[in-house]
Amino acid sequence: xxxxxxxxxxxxxxxxxxxxEKGVTYEHKPLxxxxxxxxxxxxxxxxxxxxxxxxxxxxxDSSAILWYLERKHPSPALVPTDPKALGxxxxxxxxxxxxxxGKLIVPFVERVLKPNMKKQxxxxxxxxxxxxxxxxxxxxYLEGEISGPYxxxxxxxxxxxxxxxxxxNFHLAQARVDSSxxxxxxxxxEATLARPSFQVAMEARKG
Length: 207
Ligand SMILES: N[C@@H](CCC(=O)N[C@@H](CS)C(=O)NCC(=O)O)C(=O)O
Hints:
Helices cover 58% and strands 7% of the residues.
């Protein structure tokens, strides 16, 4: 299987974590979104990352890929079967991708991506707004949802992958979850990113 997309992307990281958890071997092509590479373009209709090619089968979108991997490589399961746990897993995958991502990524975009990769100035006011205004309600919500090591049921799942992935970029931007205000969230993020699969996927940014 070929995985397209830089390891800096939280969405690409979702796919890499899933592959490592399931013990599937893959080739990683760490290109940026909208790269002209023809193989990538054929897999990603919108030019977004991640995308995969698996034995001639092409697919884009991290959640679609995670569900594909789940059916093709069912063990260990990353999608729960219990109805309530399944509902929560789908919800947290969606919440992570849509609500959390856009705000969690702001410090990374401003402090890492813009100055180092785009040669543009950092907008610290945007970082302050994300940290002080936009993220606290989301962190409050997550703090209230954490009652054990996993967000959906009693096992690691796509819910944990999708919520934790963006916190690595948050950390790369020298931002942290304040453990005095959100102790459960801070501990959950630390423990989830410490999993071997996340460690491998986080190293992939150097690829
Ligand atoms: N829903 C997609 C989102 C993927 C996405 O937006 N990736 C970003 C990089 S982190 C991208 O390719 N952005 C380029 C663009 O939006 O045109 C998924 O889950 O894979």
